[in-house]
Amino acid sequence: MRMVQSFNQDWLFAPERLAHDAPDQRFKVVSLPHTNRLFTHHSVDNTAYQFASTYRKLFVLGAGMLDGRRAFIDFDGAMLVTTVWLNGQYIGTHRGGFTPFSFELTGYLTPGENVLTVYVDATESPNVPPYGGLVDYLTFGGLYRDVHLRLVEPCHIVDVFPKPVDVLTAPGLDCQIKLSQPPTDAHLTLTLTDAGGVVVARHQHAVSDEQADLSLRGLGDITLWSLDNPALYRLSVELLQGGVVSDFMEVRFGFRHAEFCPDGNFYLNGQPLNLFGLNRHQTYPFIGAAAPKHLQQLDADILKHELGCNIVRTSHYAQSTYFLDRCDEIGLLVFEELAGWQHIGDESWQKLVMDDLRAMIERDRHRPSVILWGVRVNESPDDEGFYGETNQLARTLDPTRQTGGVRNFIQSQFLEDVFTLNDFPEGIQQPLVRPHLITEFGGHLFPTKTWDHEERRVEHALHHARKHSLQRAHPDVAGAIGWCAFDYHTHKEFGSGDRICYHGVMDIYRLPKMAAYFYRSQKPPTEEVVLHAATNWTMGDRSGGGNNPLTIFSNCEAVEVFIGDEFQGRFLPDAEQYPALAHPPFTVRWPEPYNPWGTPFRDLTVRGYIGGSVAAEQRIDASHTPDRLRVSLSTDRLKPDGADLARLAVAVVDCYGNVLPYHMHPVRFSLEGDGCLVGANPLVLLGGQGACYVKSGRRAGVITVRAEVDGLASVLVRLTVGG
Fold first, then answer.
1. What is the DSSP letter of 381?
2. How far apart are the C-alpha atoms of 515 and 658, rounded to whole Å?
């Protein structure tokens, strides 16, 4: 039978290339995911991670563990070129950092102790995608995703691809199953179960070839996967040889129909759905790309539940399975694309792209969240031969999904199923193609920091609001995916003076800018009532002074505004400027003549109304006096694996809980328990907020963290490790 063992713990690591027989004393013990070095919050020099590291894993193969089975080492991802040796014997080399790869160890293993040596070279090689040209993001380095040891029978299941059919009429399931070799006296048993474990269908079929194409029909009442009800099913496949189960594989998937249609719309399960989303980079402050399961899931939750998106684009590479698993679970659509940025290399470079595309599709084609394959290197020039091949490969590997190819010029050759365009001008470009999906806008045209002056932060938010209003009103546009969700590290040729692209609607810590509240306000009020006045509520932040006009992001039906106890008026959504938005911002203009000077400046109160009743209220302290240090954890429980991380977010807030963006205090942390802090300590707040991470050790127990800032009461938080 199949045996899969996690290889995430007890690695020895050295930030240099060491010989196979180098003494263990030259290494330190680490757990995966692991970055080849830690970084500062900003001003990250990409040359700092461009070196070869050595990872060593000592493991014992018990007597009889092989017993004629084959052994593989499976890497979910390593950056950028990985070379594997076992017991001093060369096993193989993989080039590329974003998709999984495996090496067979059979014949190199010995009973008892074995030594696995992995060299990971993070050098930005021009021969390996995404490099070859300048790239507007950093890739970092290390064994930054999971590693497993897999033992299987000589004839075993390689892949299971469930393909729902006729889901809107008579749901059925076609299933493509690949084996490692032709079996003898073999059967495949397919069992379909729903989320509650109830068996929906079971089927057994004799098999003699390496590939079997099986069908399940008459499935009865199937629940479709949707954004509001992301129903998931499991397909379990058993391989029986001589009447005995010799292998087993299980795949989670969903029944849904997703299609971009010639009328210009995207349809999910037969219903039109305007796509409203953001792009996501997989990198983080301090840890590069080495984020564990919890932080990957948190990004998906933020995009769906906090920002109200219904789609994310995995710019510009295949991303973590934990992130994608969460998209499946919560109902967040995904546009997933191959690795690259503007550059097309030579024939060998293109072969690596094709390998990357194959691995991405074969890994993720069972996912109901994935609706579109990106088969073109982002913003690259036309190449009919190359992109003809990528489209053909995608359609062959997965005939159930359409293809898109992200370009930044409207005259681009159209080879895909969906015209996907980075559309940065203020208006809407109109290609003579339907359907049409906007895959980037905003971004470098309006980079914005959390501590920028108020006018810029508000205009940044309104730029997103205007574009989404325009795209929703355009009959040929299926939706828009803004650039981008979170700020990210980049090369010195891009970004700000600290090598960060401040393009996100959230900062690099995943904490909100004003633009985040626009996205949040587009959620239905039945999900969350949103009310946020986009202002610091000061007299001197804006050019000319005052707060005219005042923008309010809300999904309420009406708002009332008070300064102190004085009623300023009742206002309706600004449907004139934003006619197509589900919930237009409110534009509050003070009566003329407007003179902000010489009058008492009092607290601002905004009340939101739904159905004639107050549904939400926000108050902002006019004195802007720091009231307390707000501390929050992304989770209160960690795994005792030496790698799990919780985000520890801190902010200085007023008496009503509003972040004070100009209070850039240093926050000091102290920790007790088996764990450590990852990040800056003290942490200087930017825009009044910031974050670091709490990392678990290997022992169960409690971690206590105290946060302190001068002039305010300290705050104590606790996490449970294990249990």
1. P
2. 16
Please give the Cα distance from 709 to 631 (Å, whole number): 11
At 400, give phi and psi (nearest 5°): -90, -10
Kindly write down the DSSP assignment for every residue of 15-49, as one continuous string.
Answer: SS---TT--GGG-EEE-SS--SS---SS---GGGG
- The type of residue at 605 is T
CA 382, distance to chain mean position in Å, is: 28
Residue 64's Cβ-count burial label (10 Å; 0-12, 13-18, 19+) is exposed
Q: Tell me: the pLDDT tens digits for 121-145?
A: 999 999 999 999 999 999 999 999 9
Confirm whether 379 is a catalytic residue.
yes
Q: How far apart are CA 193 and CA 188, in angstroms?
A: 16
Q: What is the pLDDT of residue 66?
A: 85
Q: Helices 347-364 & 321-330, crossing angle to 10 degrees?
A: 40
Q: What is the pTM of this model?
A: 0.96
Q: Give SS3 for 717.
A: strand
What's the pLDDT score for residue 368?
98
**Helix or strand (DSSP H, E) at 354:** helix 347-364
Query: What average pLDDT does range 259-285 have in this prediction?
Result: 96
Note whether 96 and 352 are within 8 A (CB). yes
Cis amide bond preceding 171, omega within 30: no
**Tens-digit pLDDT profile for residues 615-628:** 999 999 999 999 99
Mean residue pLDDT of the chain comes to 95
Of 456, 414, 450, the residue nearest 435 (C-alpha): 414
Q: What is the mean pLDDT of residues 256-269?
A: 96
Site of tokens 């330190």: 28
Question: Which residue among the candidates 379, 416, 592, 708 is catalytic per the annotation?
Answer: 379
Per the CB < 8 A criterion, the answer to whether 70 and 151 are in contact is yes
Tell me which amino acid residue 421 is. Answer: L
Q: How far apart are CA 515 and CA 457, in angstroms?
A: 7
Are 436 and 477 within 8 A, CB to CB?
yes
Phi-psi region at 164: left, alpha or beta (left = phi > 0; alpha = psi -120 to 50): beta
Task: Check 153, 336, 440, 454 and give the catalytic one.
Answer: 440
Using CA atoms, how far apart are residues 562 and 569, in angstroms rounded to an integer?
A: 8
- Alpha-carbon gap, residue 571 to 569, rounded angstroms: 6
Which domains are assigned to the chain? Answer: 3-152 (2.60.120.260), 157-253 (2.60.40.10), 274-279+332-519 (3.20.20.80), 531-620 (2.60.40.10), 628-721 (2.60.40.10)
Residues 321, 307, 289, 347, CA torsion sign: positive
Q: Give the amino acid at 701.
A: G
- Name the strand (E) or helix (H) holding 586: strand 586-588
Instruction: Report in angstroms the alpha-carbon separations of 313 from 333, 381, 404.
Output: 9, 20, 12
Q: For residues 260 and 266, what is the distance between their CA atoms, to the nearest angstrom? A: 4
Closest CA to 446 of 537, 513, 508: 513
